[in-house]
Amino acid sequence: MLTQRIQAVQPSPTLRVTALAKQLKAEGKKVINLAAGEPDFDTPEAVKKAAIEAIQEGFTKYTPTTGIPELKNAIASTLLKERRLSYRPEQIAVTCGAKQALFNLLQVLVQAGEEVLIPSPYWVSYPEMVRLAGAAPVEVRTDPASGFQVERKALEKAWSSRAKVLILNSPSNPTGAVLKAEVLKDLARWAKERDLWVISDEIYSRLVYGCDCPSIASVSPEVFSRTVVVDGVSKAYAMTGWRIGYLAGPAEIVEAAGRLQDHSTSNPTSISQRAALAALTQDQAPVKKMAEEFQKRRDRMVERLSKIKKISFVKPDGAFYCFVDVSATGLNSGLFSERLLKEALVAVIPGGGFGWDSHVRLSFAVGLESIQEGLDRLERFIQGL
Ligand SMILES: Cc1ncc(COP(=O)(O)O)c(C=O)c1O
User: Fold this and answer.
1) How far apart are the first and last CA of the chain?
2) pTM value?
3) Helix or strand or coil: residue 189?
4) What CATH architecture does domain 60-281 belong to?
5) 115-125 residues labelled b (16+ CB within 10 A) or e (exposed)
6) Could you tell me which CATH number the domain at 4-42+285-383 has?
7) pLDDT tens per residue, range 97-131
8) 39 CA from centroid of ligand 1 (Å)
9) How far is the CA of 94 from the centre of ligand 1 (A)?
10) Which pLDDT value is given to residue 10?
11) Residue 244 alpha carbon, nearest atom of ligand 1
12) Which residues line ligand 1 (CB under 6 A)?
């Protein structure tokens, strides 16, 4: 009954743990949730107000498919100011979350017989989106010893003449690694040599802690013209439910992605677009405050984790995740996560879905007390193995 297309797609690897966590909570157990993939902060007040005003004004009808001009202008200004990237409005499309931007880009850039290079550990949806486009995902292993930086020699090893696109994600979900400027310069040269398109997922770029997070598109004019940048308001503005993302890149690709959107979702919600406009144009203090709070939590998590035996990790420079090697416990990521949840009531995400079954992902998008209590329980669990 079902198509080969959907049969090739794996269910979300986070479902099992989150369903079990929910069940335990419903039974009245005090589960510490270190599995969150979204900020625990509330959407800023000015953003909510803009959405309420949009409803009251009757701004509740179709808009242009790829977004209202004011929002595209605000995105262009943000990209120029924060990422040093200059785009005309027709080079920008607003989408239903960054997820739709990525999905649409893969639909218009790759097809059967072509390959997409994906550095691992990777965000769970990339390989599935590539398969849904009929193409093949190809894993490029990175190394914790070099801070999960994407290296030319690993790319060369994975490359074949079928490769058409390279996906980069800096800061990374799940490692929190931020690609360094000199690494990006080398990747830019390599992408040109191999004639690849680059999709640069920069959804966490405003959440970095004490380092720069350059965009590969800003490295040189050559790479700018072969890169599509994907970003959105979900993570930085605590707006995951509003579903506003965007892509920016060569006009021909953006137009094609827009055509696909015309015949699928049409415009992202009109009200959310007004909210996103407020988010990007308001005083940016709430974003700074959230980033500062995340940095405190990152520091607390790293300090506490470093005292726990039998695990290792690379200190994350961005996003809100810590990717922890648990292989010395003798358990794979699925078993480790399941037992940790059942025996110690701590939810984490198994790394298998990110391509690394030796690791689990811990989120610091929770308060400091939960981090403290969760890691105390983690330590006792590991000691008891
Ligand atoms: C790396 C990465 N890219 C894209 C997304 C999707 O973002 P959005 O909620 O805007 O669709 C996520 C969300 O978890 C993510 O972690």
Assistant:
1) 45
2) 0.97
3) helix
4) 3-Layer(aba) Sandwich (3.40)
5) bbbbbbbbbbb
6) 3.90.1150.10
7) 999 999 999 999 999 999 999 999 999 999 999 99
8) 12
9) 14
10) 83
11) 10
12) 37, 97-99, 123, 169, 173, 201, 203, 232, 234, 240, 245
